[in-house]
């Protein structure tokens, strides 16, 4: 990440940019997500600049963090966006993003979503099956429009990540087997309501090695060359997202190395390079601020029960993910090992296990690297209102999503007549 660390200790207290986190908690309550504007904008600019030598478009993967304030920062930088639903398209538009820079991914687009996206004039549909192509062609025909299309190929490479977030292996539900792609491209080229534009892939998420990318992109480029030889010329090549960050002790792929690899593979090519980073742009830019409610020390385990839970951050429960937990005011007393758990009635409701910390009740903790796949995966389980989201900008704090109120939770519901 560029510039100074967005979250750092100043006079013994953790700050977001220049704002002490204790004052954030006092003013807005906990649990809350605190994002740094500088970290978000800086990560996008750094990512974009790495590819300056190639014609390219950074399409931020909205699923990582879809808050309007976050999207607004990227929209002002003239980012493209990678969406997976009509809901995400609506968010991009509401945040001032340009729909003509939107690529639409996902295996289950509905006819209604296709209509909205066609009407919004998006850049490309990343089609994931022959059946989806048929529906898209029919919808576009009915609307008298031409749908720009890329086929998502499955290159059958192992990205070496958690099985739930590996997507480029043959057995995954994503994409079209790369051997089957040429026939589907030939078919697509005959459809009058379809304009064949590109090819895309996404092999997985939280990837920390370069080799799977090289393997996958090389396979994709041979496909592009074979298509060109048979008269199907593509205008863009989309390499997806997936670059990992450091949660614990991972060694993320340096951006410069990733960019150099792509520059080498794309040397002499004319197609535009599309990239779909999500986590890499937002992950490190946020913390989940939570307060210790109770300390419970048993014979075999000690629990710190905090006011955030698996409904706010499900990654530890779902993927065994490890997030650093930093006290806002570190104490110099002897640490003890704590399981940091939430109030949800599930044994799987933990945020961190076996962490050496010196804790008192009412202490504030920052759960790090929660700018990606935290709020977007949150729920109202146990009828818990969702946390508020804040963006800190220097000395200022903007509420970009206020805390949900309990009455809102069941507003769409009704009793029987
Ligand atoms: N493009 C496509 C087509 C994707 O499916 C994804 C993520 C991305 C781009 C962005 O990937 P990123 O650069 O953020 O790795 N909930 C999981 C991650 C799921 C990722 C799904 N697809 C987690 O919390 O780790």
Structure description:
By secondary structure, the chain is of the alpha/beta class. It has 2 domains: 7-36 and 283-409, Lyase, Ornithine Decarboxylase, Chain A, domain 1; 105-277, TIM Barrel, CATH 3.20.20. It contains 12 helices and 21 strands. It has helices spanning 21-28, 37-50, 68-76, 86-94, 111-119, 130-142, 181-189, 211-229, 255-265, 279-282, 315-319, 406-409, and strands spanning 7-10, 13-16, 19-20, 32-36, 56-61, 80-83, 102-104, 124-127, 147-154, 176-177, 194-200, 236-238, 272-275, 286-297, 302-306, 325-327, 336-341, 350-357, 364-367, 388-393, 396-401. The strands form 3 sheets. Strands 4, 14, 15, 16, 17, 18, 19, 20 and 21 form a 9-stranded mixed sheet that branches. Helix 4 links the parallel strand 6 and strand 7. Helix 5 packs across helix 6. The chain binds ligand LLP. Ligand LLP binds next to helix 10 and helix 11.
Short summary of the structure?
The protein is an alpha/beta fold and about 425 residues long. The chain folds into 2 domains: about 5-35 and about 285-410, Lyase, Ornithine Decarboxylase, Chain A, domain 1 (Beta Barrel); about 105-275, Alpha-Beta Barrel (TIM Barrel), CATH 3.20.20.
